[in-house]
Design a protein that fits this description.
By secondary structure, the protein is mainly alpha-helical. It has helices at residues 44-76, 83-121, 125-160, 165-180, 182-197, 202-224, 234-258, 274-305, 310-346, 350-384, 393-407, 410-425, 431-452, 471-495, and strands spanning 455-457, 463-465. It has one domain (44-500). Strands 1-2 form a two-stranded antiparallel ribbon. Helix 2 packs antiparallel against helix 8 (274-305) and helix 11 packs parallel to helix 14.
């Protein structure tokens, strides 16, 4: 790739088009407002925060949706109150499979952000527009493929994950609407990824924030049956999510069709450009393998947790929902690092790229540690919110210790959450796959079997005695994995080898 040395005062890094543009700003290629006299002199924390805060707000809206869904399943589901625990166990498995869906979208999104950011940093807006159009085309094709596979494999997959009985039936009903709307979700994610690469995170806030705000009333409407919306109970939560994603995909396509951040959808550019598609996939496929590896290993881990009673499986899901507060906070700063690293490298300024990554990590780690302190202090109250009935007290007893345990792992988790997208912004997507496999297959899964179960099944070799710590053992294994992978990502970014990778 042509990596011409271009001063950032000529082609400004984000926040140009991000922190300075409103949601209703002018469309078109003249999107970027004039930079200050010397934007390169702006403190990096200001550039990082300008990109991160819209993503942070957007992620907390997403978290609100997840918490609202948990409330519906745990408090307002009609019928036998004892079934609430089964609904929450089904929701835990469905949440994991939703992560698989988001991991699948990485096949379209990482290459989109990396290439668009490099082209913008190098001052080649025409190439950035071509990359954005090909990203949308790739996202639509991948989404259709994922829908077909997901709908065909729902029931066998739930059986493989050791989910049976009522919880399995509830989970299947929940997942089918999400798979039907998968194409819309991937297109929405790819369009937003292109805008992030161009330095515009505010449009993503407007679109994805709007999706989250619509999701809550739609989920409640389809759950209870409000006005013209049919009441569908537990499955209605997913129908609301799927409907909101479809509306979000239409919104981001409309934004790109009108032009935003110098990007514009054009019908002639939506024809397959095979060399450019290959460049997108060359960056995205290793990252997709990494994300899908994480998802597959998470499902394997879930199958171990699903051997436990419903109360512990439910507690696992609720703890993960709260832990997402820290994860999503770090993710916002990771997205800022991804855009800045890509644009600074495209402008031929690797030292600034490194400084941007370290600045984003420091800020993200501070916020995540603050979240960890909240988890440790308020864990009983956080679980009590979702478990008001006496039948749910075992859920609280199982969940409070594990939420407090993960609170202690926030610095290591921040290394993974922030440095992973920072490396992806540089196109460094191959080596991190090895970190993922080492952490999950070498640490988390073996330890989870040994610490969680009283007897570890070894197939034809019989069984091996385990410690039988239940959910506490599973989360101990998870924290050990987080620490190992966090150290790997810290070392990789500190080595600086990512600065020499071509995309």
């Amino acid at each position: 790739m042509d990596r011409r040395r271009t001063e950032l005062t000529r082609q400004p890094p984000p926040p140009a088009g991000g922190a300075q543009e409103t949601c209703n700003g002018a469309a078109g290629a003249a999107h970027v407002p004039p930079p200050p006299a010397d934007q390169a002199a702006w403190p990096l924390w200001r550039l990082v925060l300008g990109l991160a805060w819209p993503v942070l707000l957007q992620q907390f809206l997403v978290l609100t949706v997840g918490l609202s869904d948990r409330l519906l399943a745990g408090r307002f589901q009609p019928g036998d109150p004892a079934d609430h625990v089964a609904y929450q166990a089904a929701q835990t498995t469905a949440a994991y499979l939703s992560w698989v869906i988001s991991s699948f979208a990485v096949l379209a999104t990482v290459g989109s952000t990396a290439l668009v950011a490099r082209f913008v940093g190098a001052g080649d807006r025409a190439a950035a527009v071509r990359a954005a159009n090909q990203s949308i085309l790739l996202a639509a094709a991948l989404g259709l493929l994922g829908t077909a596979v997901g709908l065909a494999g729902t029931d066998p997959l739930l059986a493989l994950l050791q989910l049976h009985g009522k919880a399995a039936a509830f989970a299947a009903d929940y997942l089918r609407p999400l798979f039907l709307a998968l194409t819309a979700y991937v297109v929405l994610a790819a369009g937003n990824a292109c805008l992030v690469g161009a330095g515009d995170t505010r449009t993503g806030l407007c679109v994805l924030g709007g999706v989250a705000l619509l999701n809550v009333p739609l989920a409640w409407g389809f759950f209870h049956g409000v006005g013209p919306l049919p009441g569908q109970g537990f499955a209605g939560i997913a129908v609301g999510t799927a409907t909101a994603n479809v509306l979000g995909a239409l919104a981001v396509l409309t934004v790109l069709a009108r032009g935003r951040a110098g990007l514009r959808l054009r019908l002639p550019l939506l024809r397959p450009d095979w060399p450019l598609l290959w460049r997108l996939l060359r960056v995205s496929v290793p990252a997709g393998i990494d994300s899908l590896s994480v998802a597959a290993c998470q499902l394997w881990f879930l199958s171990i947790v699903n051997h436990l009673p419903y109360a512990e499986s439910s507690a696992h899901g609720i703890a993960l929902g709260w832990e997402a507060m820290s994860y999503l906070s770090g993710y916002a700063f990771g997205m800022a690092a991804m855009a800045l690293v890509g644009q600074f490298l495209g402008a031929g300024r690797p030292r600034q790229a490194a400084r941007a990554g370290w600045t984003a990590f420091g800020m993200g780690c501070a916020v995540m540690c603050l979240m960890g302190a909240v988890f440790y202090a308020l864990a009983p109250q956080m679980f009590g919110l979702f478990c008001p009935d006496p039948e749910q007290r075992p859920v609280i007893a199982a969940g409070v210790p594990v939420l407090r345990l993960v609170a202690l792992a926030m610095p290591a988790l921040a290394c993974s959450i922030v440095f992973t997208p920072a490396l992806r912004g540089a196109g460094d997507t191959r080596v991190p796959v090895l970190f993922t496999w080492t952490g999950f297959l070498g640490v988390r899964i073996p330890l989870a079997y040994f610490l969680t179960l009283a007897e570890v099944p070894l197939g034809p070799l019989g069984t091996w005695p385990g410690l039988g710590w239940g959910l506490q053992g599973a989360w101990t294994a998870m924290v050990a994995d987080v620490i190992v992978r966090g150290l790997f990502f810290l070392y990789r970014f500190a080595s600086g080898r990512w600065q020499r990778i071509e995309v």
